[in-house]
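Milestone 3.1: sequence recovery, worked example.
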């Protein structure tokens, strides 16, 4: 398939595709249908946004993909599973002041999921927030029976209300991340277009395979999202070619370029789709949402 052909071969003319029709992945853009409206919601497709390397745009992608899915008429729940609380802060939540967070859903005495649930400024987008309290959860969970399923138990009461649940994992492969993988239908890996990020994918995909074999047989790789891409640099283009060569169709056509808009949205506490709705970053995440919907929803 064309998705498995490295970028340089496409550019050398081995594919019968004009150069101006190729996307940043070096492949022709795939035909993605427009999302169909939903007349009912749920049960949710649970997606773990996961990469053990920090600074790859994982939280930014979780927020903006969630907002773009909500724009498409989907009901979306974001789960902040990182003790740093960046997802919560990025949505304008004063997370350090919260009394009940995801931590209270995982560790007894358990809080009710609805008591932790928060609405956001975006219609159709809800949040389970987190803060530094969650940092103790990995140690506290060690002695719990079924510790890998703690998050699944917390999400079960609300899963039927949503079309998508996006889990923002912390940058590690510890017990919290295993909890996310154990309840997810698929994993989206945001990956900075940089050599060391590429090296780390092997360890991550190995962890995904182990969770699939031992804890969650429905878990699969949902896609690779290349972030912080700079078309002008040879390094970015070479890394992109290698990622497409190894992962083929799993690599999304949508690529997130570097832009100053994303740090601005973090300060503003809202997604780029509402902060700068006509920006290239907003358009990219809307395109990504279309791809995610196409991969996870069966046409009527």
């Amino acid at each position: 398939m064309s998705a498995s052909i490295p970028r340089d071969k496409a550019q050398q003319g081995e594919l019968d595709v004009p150069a101006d029709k190729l996307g940043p992945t070096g492949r022709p853009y795939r035909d993605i249908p427009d999302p169909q409206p939903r007349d009912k919601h749920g049960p949710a497709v649970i997606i773990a946004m996961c990469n053990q390397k920090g600074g790859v745009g994982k939280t930014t992608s979780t927020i903006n993909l969630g907002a773009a899915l909500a724009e498409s008429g989907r009901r979306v729940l974001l789960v902040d599973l990182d003790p740093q609380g960046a997802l919560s802060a990025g949505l304008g939540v004063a997370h350090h002041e919260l009394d009940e967070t995801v931590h209270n859903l995982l560790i007894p005495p358990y809080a009710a999921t609805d008591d932790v649930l928060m609405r956001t400024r975006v219609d159709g987008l809800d949040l389970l927030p987190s803060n530094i309290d969650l940092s103790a959860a990995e140690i506290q969970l060690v002695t719990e029976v079924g510790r890998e399923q703690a998050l699944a138990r917390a999400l079960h009461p609300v899963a039927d209300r949503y079309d998508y649940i996006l889990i923002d994992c912390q940058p590690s492969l510890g017990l919290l991340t295993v909890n996310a993988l154990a309840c997810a239908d698929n994993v989206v890996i945001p990956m900075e277009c940089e050599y060391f990020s590429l090296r780390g994918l092997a360890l991550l995909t190995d962890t995904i395979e182990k969770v699939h074999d031992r804890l969650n047989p429905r878990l699969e790789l949902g896609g690779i999202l290349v972030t912080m891409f700079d078309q002008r640099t040879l390094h970015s283009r070479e890394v992109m070619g290698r990622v497409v060569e190894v992962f083929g169709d799993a690599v999304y056509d949508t690529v997130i370029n570097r832009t100053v808009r994303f740090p601005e949205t973090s300060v503003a506490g809202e997604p780029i789709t509402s902060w700068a709705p006509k920006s290239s970053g907003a358009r990219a995440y809307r395109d990504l949402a279309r791809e995610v919907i196409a991969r996870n929803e069966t046409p009527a």
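The chain has one domain: 2-14+39-295. The radius of gyration is 19 Å.
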